[in-house]
Design brief:
By secondary structure, the protein is mainly α. The chain has one domain (7-157): Arc Repressor Mutant, subunit A. The protein has seven helices and three strands, in the order αααβααββαα. The chain has helices spanning 7-10, 20-44, 50-60, 68-75, 79-91, 113-133, 139-157; strands spanning 66-67, 95-100, 103-111. Strands 1-3-2 form a three-stranded antiparallel beta sheet. The model has no long low-confidence stretch (mean pLDDT 91).
Length: 160
């Protein structure tokens, strides 16, 4: 097991954090950044960004047609951001946007065969990285962590 390092040492802080809640939040943010960088390195090998992979991944598991707007809500990004990501994915032949009958301003987004093949290739490697990062965490411990993070998000949303 890799040696654990405190956030104070990892960020080479000259004075240790004195506020435990600040230290906890900084740990969450820094951990998210570390995970994001690890994912970005993997996705770069396949000429994808993290956002592009997230779109492909979401589209793989949808069970009905989604519009660009619905996709942006699920990815928690702006419609403009989704449009830009979809433009790139469409250029690569990985997604297809098709006009919704009766409304030329709305498009359904689907994976192409090439897009599905790519996400099928990258996903197992991504999952392997996730499992490695959470090595030693039981299902119960993962559920507890999820519960704690959901609680924090709820608190943030309901704090003035």
């Amino acid at each position: 097991m890799a040696a654990q390092m405190s956030i104070n040492k990892e960020l080479q802080l000259e004075r240790p954090l004195e506020d435990i809640r600040h230290e906890a939040v900084l740990n969450i943010v820094h951990t998210a950044n570390v995970l994001s960088l690890k994912g970005a390195a993997l996705f770069r090998r396949f000429e994808l960004t993290e956002a592009q992979f997230n779109v492909l991944f979401a589209l793989k598991y949808k069970t009905r047609d989604w519009t660009q707007s619905e996709l942006s809500k699920r990815l928690v990004v702006t419609r403009a951001s989704v449009t830009s990501v979809l433009d790139k994915l469409e250029e690569k032949g990985l997604v297809l946007r098709s006009a919704v009958e009766g409304n030329r301003r709305i498009y359904h987004v689907t994976l192409t065969k090439r897009g599905l093949d790519l996400v099928d290739k990258v996903e197992p490697m991504y999952r392997s990285d996730i499992h490695a990062a959470l090595k030693g965490f039981s299902d119960t411990r993962c559920r507890e962590l999820i519960g704690h993070l959901e609680h924090i998000r709820s608190q943030v949303r309901h704090t003035d």
